[in-house]
From TrEMBL:
Protein name per the record: DNA damage checkpoint protein LCD1
Organism, scientific name: Huiozyma naganishii (strain ATCC MYA-139 / BCRC 22969 / CBS 8797 / KCTC 17520 / NBRC 10181 / NCYC 3082 / Yp74L-3) (Yeast)
GO CC term (a single one): ATR-ATRIP complex
Chain residue ranges for the region called Disordered: 1-26, 136-157
GO biological process: DNA damage checkpoint signaling; establishment of protein localization; telomere maintenance via telomerase
Amino acid composition bias (Acidic residues), ranges on this chain: 1-13
Domain of life: Eukaryota
Polar residues: compositionally biased ranges: 137-157
GO molecular function per UniProt: damaged DNA binding
Chief location category: nucleus
Coiled coil spans: 101-135
UniProt gene name: KNAG0F00350
InterPro entries cross-referenced by the UniProt entry: DNA_damage_chkpnt_Lcd1 (IPR018622)
Amino acid sequence: MSGLSSDDEDDELILQLSALPPKTTLQDAPKKYATQVQNNTDQAVQQSKPNPTDNDRVLELEMKLTKARGETSMLRDKISLLNKEREKDKLNHADTDSQAKQEHERELKYMKQVIQNLKDEKKFLLMEMKTKKAVPTSASLQTNPQAQHQTPDTSTLTPLVKKRKLEDTPQYLKSNVVSLNSHRILPRESDLLFNSIMSFKLFGVDVTLLEILDVLTVKHIDTVEANDFILHSNESIGKQLRRFMMVAKSKLNLDKFIDTFLENLVFLITKISYNSQESKLAVPFLIALMHQIIIFRPSAVKQLCLQNLLLFVCDFILENRRVLRQPLRNVNDPELKLKILEPQVFQYEFIDKLMICYSFDLLESGLRIAQLLTNDGLWAILIDSKISNSLTAIYNLSLSVSVRPFLNAVFNIVAIFNILSNMLVTVQQDSTLIPPSKDTNGSLIVHGSWWKLPLDKLYNLLEKDVKNYYLMSHLDNMDSRSFEKNHFVDINGLIRNIGNNSLAAFVEELIHTDKLQNFPRVISKENLPIQKAHLDFEFEGWLLSLQKDILLTFNNMLLVFPEDSVIINGNMFAHLARLLAQEQQEILSTYLGQDNPNIISRVELIESTLTLIYKLWMNHHQTIGQEYIKEVENELITALRRVVASQMDEKLPRTNDDMADHRNIVDKLNELTVRDQARYYEDAFEDMPEYITKELSDHLDGRCYRIMQARYQKVYQEMAKTILESHKTGLLTVEQADALYAAMGL
């Protein structure tokens, strides 16, 4: 029985083993193995329940199965995590690779450009070295004495061309002979613009403009990208501008280079200006860079580019109008004498004033360049309603009598009026131009009604006194009747150097030279230099030139709108007559006999004023009106008498010693200047020619006579006589005129 039972047990084990899957299946498919093991285990448990040995085996198999399932689950989770990490690494690697490729391409382009520039520079240096090493041989400069006595064989030689015999070159010339380089390579205009920008400095500042921009950055703007120009946060503005220029100048011609560069700068300035968190420290220097670009080659700035530039500058000025709205603070009135509290930091106010000053210069230069356009281009700007409306808002803001004048902007506005009137004179004879539509209601520059308010503003400027001392407008000496320069705006512009430029040193104080920055350094008002009133003939000369520009604008108005009573009227005549009388009184009571270089300028101002009065008197007498003539009659007659009485008898005897004494008293500075210029003739003449000596002497004597007695040219004296003798108004009767001339000895 025992043998039978053991055989039965062996048979059952054989059956179980035969039911198991092969090893390869277990290795390749753990799930299938686990399922089959579970089924076989269940069958074995059912068949061998009575046997305790089988129960132990089943428990062992179940434990193994549970362990296998746990390991399988853990492996599945690990595989899932590994797959996720692998996908994430792939994405990160792809992004990194893309960025690396782009940066590599940019660096490659930059290095190629640098290498090309170095190669060009190497070529120039090699050619320069060859030029310096080249020594002219004596054979090329001297004649061979033996060859002079040899007779050429005419049977074997071609006919000789007769040549002029050369003299032996002096020895001192031989040592200074420089051979010309026939293989000179002219640089491209884009390269010249690049070099001009790289070396440009603001007046009175020791570092270049790009060196200032090198230490400036943006903090609150992630990316500025336009036309191959890319600027990220915390990157140097100057460095990125260099990269753009290096790429652009090699592939763009000059006009396209200028257009693209200006567009990028406008985009960058707009981004900075309209971000309330971003500092405006870089804006004035970017505007100065735009000005340098357009004046480099004005003919390369196209019409559309100019129009867009003018609109941008006008919008920028109007956006920062608060800088121009400074109160008058007239404390001369005891009722208004209040203590005004102000912050003692100056850096932000300084940046704002630089922005406005440079913006007005950019606007004026843009309009000057527009004068180079064809008549069609000029007409397109003059009838542009946006430009007309923007300029109207700007001059109303700049020449307002209710705020403290920004003197730099006043000069710009007067120059702009002069430029616009010159444009009108240029296009008025062109009949091919299409007139503007009638629905503009006289709001365009080409309409006479647009000029009514500008002329009123110019009349107010003519009424101001021009002094020959430099007056800083502090709180205690405000005077609205005179031109004054604000102590906190004593900075030269991009066009004019008005004033002493005492704040130029503080431009460098705004920045750190050794690190990137976004905010300016602190500048205290206590550190600003305080200047007292003092003689300043240069400042006086600038103010006289301002009044001359106003008179030029009036003259253009007479040419463009000769029949427009809105422009040509008694108001203009009255203001000109008052100016004539005022300048006559000033020059006779104050300036005659002074050693002042501006005496001649004042005389020329009187002559220009008299010319306009004469034109109004002769051509527009009916438009003036008797009421205006009666208003200024006494002042006009007195001024005209002084012009007529200034004539001298040039036949009166005078000695050279007398005139030399007079010049030493009233015109010594001019005499020294002329004598210094006369030294230029010493290189051309061994002895000064007699005719040059006489011309210089006559020039000095004539100027001295004009200063001492305010002598006017003959044509202006005839104008004054004509007005006084005119029967249109009866300023003087015939008897009065005869008595006047008899008293004058004429």
